[in-house]
UniProtKB/TrEMBL annotation:
Species assigned in the record: Paenibacillus zeirhizosphaerae
Protein name: Type II toxin-antitoxin system HicB family antitoxin
Length: 108
């Protein structure tokens, strides 16, 4: 439980209403939800305890957390020339670098 697992929280709105859906990236099927972020986080911690207990009980391997050393923060992406031009123009209009503009767009 003390290992740095990747907890992902997403705000959801559907026919059931508004809630926060939470998963653990490395623990397949470990998921929960809550009405608030705090409730969702508490709920996923309980789900993790149950998930890990069952794995230990049956002697199943427990996935390790994804280490940040596995990712350099860089990747190459090929795009059509027209899209490249549009991105450069929009970055210039915002007075930011192409890298900053693409990072902003990807993070949204």
């Amino acid at each position: 439980m003390a290992l740095p697992y990747t907890i992902q929280i997403r705000e959801m709105n559907d026919e059931s209403g508004h809630y926060f859906y939470v998963t653990v990236a490395e623990l397949d099927g470990c998921q929960s939800h809550g009405d608030t972020i705090e409730e969702a986080y508490e709920s996923i911690r309980e789900a993790m305890e149950g998930y890990l207990s069952v794995k230990l009980e049956f002697g199943d391997p427990i996935p390790e957390p994804a280490g940040s050393e596995e990712y350099s923060g860089k990747f190459n992406l090929r795009v059509p020339k027209t899209l490249h031009r549009q991105l450069v123009e929009r970055a210039a209009a915002e007075n930011v670098s192409l890298n900053q503009y693409c990072l902003y767009k990807l993070s949204r």
